[in-house]
Design goal:
With 141 residues, the chain is an alpha+beta fold. 32% of the residues lie in helices and 38% in strands.
């Protein structure tokens, strides 16, 4: 919980993300965040990668995965796309600041008795309009 509060405090201090299509230095907005997460839901690795800098660092704190550089992050995203087909990843709330954002997300899948969902938070840092670091926090229970 302490990590979550620190992450949100960092966001209020400053961050920025834009559409993968434009890659300008424009400020992030909720539509950009929604499109980014839609790409994860669709398993569209090329679109996901369009949001990142070449030296992207993607950390999944719960699993201990630390992926550094476009090649490693592409493999991580492809693994997600291959192993979680049909899973929905939806932003529930977004805090936007200069230089990035914090996103509370819900990942869900399955139907009926097999249905499941996981809540988490991702802290996004940006540089020159692209994500330079993404850190996911969620409970693995």
């Amino acid at each position: 919980m302490r990590s979550l509060f620190l992450a949100i405090a960092m966001v209020v201090g400053g961050f920025s993300l834009v559409s993968a299509a434009s890659h300008s230095d424009a400020e992030i907005n909720k539509a950009n965040i929604k499109s980014y997460y839609e790409a994860w839901t669709q398993g569209d690795v090329d679109t996901i990668m369009g949001y990142f800098t070449d030296d992207i660092v993607y950390e999944d704190v719960a699993t201990g995965a630390l992926n550094t550089g476009a090649e490693a992050v592409r493999a991580f995203a492809q693994g997600f796309a291959d192993n979680y087909k049909g899973v929905s990843l939806v932003p529930a709330s977004v805090v936007i600041g200069h230089g990035g954002a914090a996103v509370e997300w819900v990942m869900s899948g399955g139907t009926g008795e097999e249905a499941w969902s996981v809540r988490g938070v991702c802290v996004l840092e940006t540089r020159k309009g692209k994500i330079s670091r993404a850190t996911d926090y969620w409970d693995k229970k």
